[in-house]
């Protein structure tokens, strides 16, 4: 590894600023999938056991300023339960609330600081905000591979001003992804869905040069359907990205990458469990309808694309899987990929906070060859892009 790890750190008596990804799926204040928490436990335990004061830095959601609905406070009890030791919480990640709690910490204690994104300086990687964060620590450890594609103060800036190390989860992700996908066997199929359309659509342009087929589902598919001149009603759709979608489809033709879009969809009147829903062809989506899942014909197509694949990479659910029956496309595709993997006909790598939750929901996370905590970061890594959070950790 070309960066320092915990093997090189001496945490005893030190204040360790440990950047983790606690952007966990949550419904009504309840964590629905704890994978991201479970993955950081070895690092937290190792530092605490080594006598370091563990000060956790993390973001949650995409708040614009301080917003109670994006507080990390509900995560502290679950982290404490899984860790098996108390986890204190500070109402702010900088300033007096953080400093006071940190001053009271004994060696081996764990403290979670409030959402770094409550400060505009986080996403701007503002040097003054980096300085305010750094004032609370002696050593910086980054264990948030899934946020490493962000050049933010807590993912990149801090590594520039404090002695910086990779945590065990960061190390494990990079090692596992390299091992699994170093020399992928073709045909390679990528499945991309989910809701983060604007932050992920650009990377598809590079992805279509690397894979043999790109299955597009979830909210992402709607922008592509719209770009093809189809009406998508009230569906999640980023109309101003239609040109980008068309450019990606043209590039895919040039690189011989098959683009697989839904041919039918499960359409509801609203985003709710008790919504009225019907199946429609994608050329007949009603004006007041909302596409919440791929339809049965599309699922059959996706299954046969997976049948033809030797390697599968997947980020983003194919539908709003949190609400039944809109989990069907994701669950059926996941189970099919799991079955092919178990039969040793497929190498399958999936990642992303909600994607992992969806695989757990389908009961097949353990059957995939590798499950990453990262979605966007995983896809950018796959593109061959340098990830700012990883680059900043490299040894000089
Ligand atoms: N057709 C759709 N309309 C609205 N939301 C969708 C649709 N399909 C999937 N989603 C939502 O996408 C979210 C996950 O997207 P994203 O954050 O990009 O995935 P990940 O966390 O795995 O990277 C889920 O909450 C899911 O409900
Ligand atoms: O959930 C995350 O990424 P993912 O949805 O790509 O898996 C990370 O916490 C990064 O969050 P961001 O995409 O708001 O920067």
From TrEMBL:
<keyword id="KW-0547">Nucleotide-binding</keyword>
<keyword id="KW-0324">Glycolysis</keyword>
<feature type="binding site">
    <location>
        <position position="200"/>
    </location>
    <ligand>
        <name>ATP</name>
    </ligand>
</feature>
<protein>
    <recommendedName>
        <fullName>Phosphoglycerate kinase</fullName>
        <ecNumber>2.7.2.3</ecNumber>
    </recommendedName>
</protein>
<comment type="subunit">
    <text>Monomer.</text>
</comment>
<keyword id="KW-0418">Kinase</keyword>
<feature type="binding site">
    <location>
        <position position="117"/>
    </location>
    <ligand>
        <name>(2R)-3-phosphoglycerate</name>
    </ligand>
</feature>
<comment type="similarity">
    <text>Belongs to the phosphoglycerate kinase family.</text>
</comment>
<dbReference type="Pfam" id="PF00162">
    <property type="entry name" value="PGK"/>
</dbReference>
<feature type="binding site">
    <location>
        <position position="150"/>
    </location>
    <ligand>
        <name>(2R)-3-phosphoglycerate</name>
    </ligand>
</feature>
<feature type="binding site">
    <location>
        <position position="322"/>
    </location>
    <ligand>
        <name>ATP</name>
    </ligand>
</feature>
<feature type="binding site">
    <location>
        <position position="117"/>
    </location>
    <ligand>
        <name>substrate</name>
    </ligand>
</feature>
<dbReference type="GO" id="GO:0006094">
    <property type="term" value="P:gluconeogenesis"/>
</dbReference>
<feature type="binding site">
    <location>
        <position position="36"/>
    </location>
    <ligand>
        <name>substrate</name>
    </ligand>
</feature>
<feature type="binding site">
    <location>
        <begin position="352"/>
        <end position="355"/>
    </location>
    <ligand>
        <name>ATP</name>
    </ligand>
</feature>
<dbReference type="InterPro" id="IPR001576">
    <property type="entry name" value="Phosphoglycerate_kinase"/>
</dbReference>
<dbReference type="GO" id="GO:0004618">
    <property type="term" value="F:phosphoglycerate kinase activity"/>
</dbReference>
<feature type="binding site">
    <location>
        <position position="36"/>
    </location>
    <ligand>
        <name>(2R)-3-phosphoglycerate</name>
    </ligand>
</feature>
<feature type="binding site">
    <location>
        <position position="150"/>
    </location>
    <ligand>
        <name>substrate</name>
    </ligand>
</feature>
<comment type="pathway">
    <text>Carbohydrate degradation; glycolysis; pyruvate from D-glyceraldehyde 3-phosphate: step 2/5.</text>
</comment>
<keyword id="KW-0808">Transferase</keyword>
<dbReference type="GO" id="GO:0005829">
    <property type="term" value="C:cytosol"/>
</dbReference>
<feature type="binding site">
    <location>
        <begin position="21"/>
        <end position="23"/>
    </location>
    <ligand>
        <name>substrate</name>
    </ligand>
</feature>
<keyword id="KW-0963">Cytoplasm</keyword>
<dbReference type="GO" id="GO:0043531">
    <property type="term" value="F:ADP binding"/>
</dbReference>
<dbReference type="GO" id="GO:0005524">
    <property type="term" value="F:ATP binding"/>
</dbReference>
<dbReference type="GO" id="GO:0006096">
    <property type="term" value="P:glycolytic process"/>
</dbReference>
<dbReference type="InterPro" id="IPR015824">
    <property type="entry name" value="Phosphoglycerate_kinase_N"/>
</dbReference>
<keyword id="KW-0067">ATP-binding</keyword>
<feature type="binding site">
    <location>
        <begin position="59"/>
        <end position="62"/>
    </location>
    <ligand>
        <name>substrate</name>
    </ligand>
</feature>
<dbReference type="InterPro" id="IPR036043">
    <property type="entry name" value="Phosphoglycerate_kinase_sf"/>
</dbReference>
């Amino acid at each position: 590894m070309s960066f320092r790890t915990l093997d090189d750190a001496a945490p005893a008596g030190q204040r360790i600023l440990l950047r983790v990804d606690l952007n966990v799926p949550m419904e009504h204040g309840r964590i629905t999938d704890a994978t991201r928490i479970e993955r950081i436990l070895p690092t937290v335990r190792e530092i605490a056991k080594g006598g370091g004061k563990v000060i956790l830095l993390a973001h949650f959601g995409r708040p614009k300023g301080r917003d109670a609905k994006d507080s990390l406070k509900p995560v502290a009890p679950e982290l404490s339960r899984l860790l098996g030791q108390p986890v204190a919480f500070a109402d702010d990640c900088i300033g007096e609330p953080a400093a006071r709690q940190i001053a009271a910490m004994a060696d081996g204690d764990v403290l979670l600081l409030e959402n770094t994104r409550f400060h505009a300086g986080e996403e701007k990687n503002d040097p003054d905000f980096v300085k305010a964060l750094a004032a609370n620590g002696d050593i910086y450890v980054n264990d948030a591979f899934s946020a490493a594609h962000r050049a933010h103060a807590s993912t990149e800036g801090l590594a520039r001003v404090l002695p910086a190390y990779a945590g065990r989860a960061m190390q494990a992700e990079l090692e596992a992804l390299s091992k699994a996908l170093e020399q992928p066997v073709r045909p390679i199929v990528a499945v991309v869905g989910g809701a983060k359309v604007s932050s992920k659509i650009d990377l598809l342009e590079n992805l279509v040069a690397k894979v043999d087929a790109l299955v597009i589902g979830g909210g992402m598919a709607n922008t592509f359907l719209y770009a093809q001149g189809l009406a998508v009603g009230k569906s999640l759709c980023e109309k101003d990205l239609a040109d980008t979608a068309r450019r990606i489809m043209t590039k895919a033709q040039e690189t011989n990458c098959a683009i697989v879009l839904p041919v039918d969809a499960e359409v509801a009147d609203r985003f709710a469990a008790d919504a009225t829903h019907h199946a429609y062809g994608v050329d007949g989506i009603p004006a007041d309808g909302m596409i919440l899942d791929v339809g049965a014909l599309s699922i059959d197509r996706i299954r046969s694309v997976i049948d033809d694949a030797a390697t599968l990479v997947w980020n983003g659910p194919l539908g709003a899987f949190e609400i039944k029956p809109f989990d069907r496309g994701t669950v059926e595709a996941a189970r099919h990929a799991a079955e092919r993997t178990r039969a040793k006909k497929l190498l399958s790598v999936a990642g992303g906070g909600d994607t992992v939750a969806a695989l757990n929901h389908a009961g097949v996370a353990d059957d995939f060859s590798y499950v990453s905590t990262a979605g966007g970061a995983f896809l950018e890594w796959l593109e061959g892009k340098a990830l700012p959070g990883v680059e900043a950790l490299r040894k000089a």
